[in-house]
Design brief:
With 41 residues, the chain is mainly α. It has 2 helices and no strands. This is RCK C-terminal domain-containing protein.
């Protein structure tokens, strides 16, 4: 498998978010988004 990096390009970020949505873990998606929102502030 491919390790998830927490400093990916925007395209990778979207793909990772899609993977989390496919897994159906909404909390994981929210946490994922919060990490990026916090990092970009």
């Amino acid at each position: 498998g491919k390790d998830i990096e927490f400093n990916p390009s925007p395209d990778s970020k979207i793909k990772t978010g899609d993977i989390l949505l496919v897994l159906g873990d909404k909390n994981a998606v929210n946490q994922f988004e919060n990490i990026y929102l916090g990092a970009s502030s």
